[in-house]
Write a structure and sequence with these properties.
Blueprint (H helix, E strand, L loop, with lengths): L9 H14 L8 E6 L5 E5 L3 E4 L2 H4 L7 H15 L10 E5 L5 E6 L7 E6 L15 H12 L4 E5 L5 H9 L8 E5 L11 E5 L11 H10 L4 E4 L7 H8 L5 E7 L3 H17 L4 H11 L2 E11 L2 E10 L5 E3 L9 E3 L3 H13 L4 H17 L16 H11 L7 E2 L5 E2 L1
Parallel strand pairs: 7-11, 7-12, 8-9, 8-10, 10-11
Antiparallel strand pairs: 1-2, 1-6, 2-3, 4-5, 5-6, 12-13, 14-15, 16-17
Helix pairs in contact: 1-3, 8-9, 11-12
């Protein structure tokens, strides 16, 4: 277990000991990934590959009884004091590191029905490789070449999917001669390069005035080759996007999202909500496509109660997820496309049903033009030519008559192939 106790007061170290005893208990063989205290005497641990398990009663007695909430409050207060954070009855919320390097979230008071809740994401040093994430060989090469060549990347995935673990492996592909600067509020990255500067952003409860904006401004003046900020959230999305736009070096970041497409949409929303709301959505999407070279999707897949995998499911270029509308008046709109494989499946299904996908596309374009002409779509150029081409007119007439393109009518007027 890594020791960060030099950053904490003796009172904080002593108050945290019971939780640390649980994490280091031999019966769990060092496989605990999370500790969850859900109220007096109610502690569960998440064991890698085995799921959630309640801890023995004797190990949870320290937060049992009437003074359980006070015990947890005292722990949170001492941890907060070590970080110069505010934790009191008015603001009973803290997110920080513990003396063993784990990520701590604590809440005490009326907002929790059981009096308190603690979640500890255990710090584990995992030397994972691409193979551990079941990355295809061609994608391994693409990721390694992008990182080594100074390209920017975004890792997308859910909680506990392994984003940071994979990012730590990707960092090993950065040339040793390059200057790396990390910017995190909770340190999780491991960098062994000689020219490395770790920068810390104070948590939001901190009395410090050094927020993400000022930290990144300082970061740029240190002339980095590679910038690695922490996870993109609403409160830091706009500053991190400024990193991508700085031209100072490549950027590697992470965010919560379920797919590469959702990552683009989510990043757009976060930027708008964090201070860039005046930015056109179209401009944001174009900027993402131009600034981010790869989006890497990671998933946590549980196959059974005792078998789980973390898998890289997609490695895509944002440019391949975006295209421009061919409809006059909407040429500059950026639309997020469906996954290529799903489009292939849809095409095959349409063909099996006797429907030509090209005819559907023409029909869609024709109806869009009609809506533009009727003023039902905003954003169109009033002077644009929205008249239907002869081919589109033919398709509209054919479908309006109840026939599929290519069908002929019999003598009694029924369609015949």
């Amino acid at each position: 277990m890594v020791d960060f106790s030099q950053d904490f007061s003796p009172l904080a170290i002593e108050a945290y000991k019971p939780f640390r005893k649980i994490i280091e208990a031999p019966r769990f063989k060092g496989k605990i990934t999370e500790v969850m205290a859900n109220g007096p005497g109610r502690i569960l641990v998440r064991v890698a590959g085995e799921g959630d398990k309640p801890v023995p009663r004797e190990m949870s007695e320290f937060i049992s009884g009437k003074k359980a909430a006070e015990t947890v409050f005292s722990l949170c207060h001492h941890l907060a004091a070590s970080y110069d954070l505010i934790f009191d009855r008015k603001l009973p919320d803290i997110a920080c590191r513990t003396p063993d390097g784990s990520r701590f979230q604590g809440n005490v008071g009326p907002m929790i029905g059981t009096g308190f809740a603690v979640s500890i994401r255990v710090y584990r040093v995992l030397d994972a490789t691409f193979d551990d994430f079941h990355v295809k060989p061609e994608d391994q090469d693409l990721i390694a070449e992008t990182v080594a060549g100074g390209g920017s990347s975004l890792l997308s995935g859910g909680t506990g999917s392994g984003k940071t673990t994979l990012q730590n492996h990707m960092i090993t592909y950065v040339p040793q001669t390059e200057r790396i600067i990390t910017v995190e509020d909770t340190p999780e990255l491991r960098v062994s390069h000689p020219n490395y500067v770790p920068m810390r952003v104070p948590p939001r409860q901190s009395v410090s005035n050094m927020g993400w904006g000022l930290i990144i401004e300082s970061c740029m003046r240190h002339n980095p080759d590679v910038l690695i900020p922490g996870e993109i959230r609403i409160y830091n999305a706009f500053p991190i996007m400024q990193m991508f736009d700085s031209g100072e070096g490549s950027v590697m970041s992470t965010m919560h999202s379920n797919s590469p497409r959702e990552a683009i949409r989510g990043l757009r929303r976060r930027v708008a909500m964090s201070g860039g709301a005046e930015t056109e959505l179209q401009d944001l999407e174009e900027f993402i496509a131009a600034s981010v070279d790869l989006i890497i999707q990671v998933r946590h897949m549980r196959q059974s109660d005792d078998i789980e995998r973390r898998v890289v499911t997609d490695v895509v270029r944002p440019k391949d997820l975006l295209f421009k509308s061919p409809v006059p008046g909407l040429e500059q709109d950026i639309v997020i496309r469906d996954d290529v494989l799903r489009m292939k499946d849809l095409t095959e299904s349409l063909k099996a049903a006797g429907i030509d996908p090209d005819d559907l596309a023409l029909m869609f374009r024709a109806k869009t033009r009609e809506m533009l002409a009727d003023g039902k779509l905003s954003g169109a150029d009033p002077g644009a030519d929205v008249s239907l081409s002869p081919e589109e007119q033919s398709v509209v007439r054919t479908w309006a008559g109840g026939k599929k393109p290519g069908e002929e009518e019999t003598d009694d007027g029924t369609p015949q192939s």
